[in-house]
Design goal:
disordered N terminus, globular
Length: about 100
C-alpha cells in the first residue's frame, strides 16, 4: 500500500505538480530561510512537494525544525521512543524520495 502511495506521489511530481509561494509549507519555508548556498526556490519547492506526499503535517513541522537545529535530527534519530522511531522511518523515506525527485 505504501509503495503505491509513494509511486503515485512520485508520478505526480514528475508530471509537474507545482507549489506557489503562497502555499509554501513548513519544509519549503525552513529550506529557504536556512541560508544554505545550494538552496533555491525551485529546489525548496520540490522538497516540499515530496514532503506533502510522504510526511504528515506534524512530521513536516518536526523535519523543518532540523533546518534550524541540525542537532535535533540526531537526538530524534538516537531516541528510544517508538514515536521517534516511526517518525525516523518516514523521514528516511522522505529523504530518499526527495533526493530522487529533486536532484538536478
Amino acid at each position: 500500500m505504501m509503495k503505491l502511495v509513494f509511486a503515485a506521489g512520485f508520478a505526480a511530481l514528475c508530471f509537474g505538480v507545482t507549489a506557489t509561494s503562497a502555499s509554501a509549507g513548513p519544509i519549503q519555508s525552513a529550506c529557504l530561510q536556512a541560508g544554505r548556498s545550494g538552496a533555491s526556490p525551485g529546489l525548496c519547492s520540490c522538497i516540499q512537494q515530496v514532503a506533502n506526499i510522504t510526511l504528515r503535517g506534524a512530521d513536516q513541522r518536526k523535519a523543518a525544525s532540523f533546518f534550524r537545529d541540525p542537532d535535533k535530527a540526531q537526538e530524534v534519530h538516537m531516541s528510544k521512543s517508538r514515536a521517534d522511531d516511526d517518525f525516523w522511518d518516514r523521514y528516511v523515506i522522505f529523504g530518499q524520495q526527495a533526493q530522487m525527485a529533486c536532484a538536478g
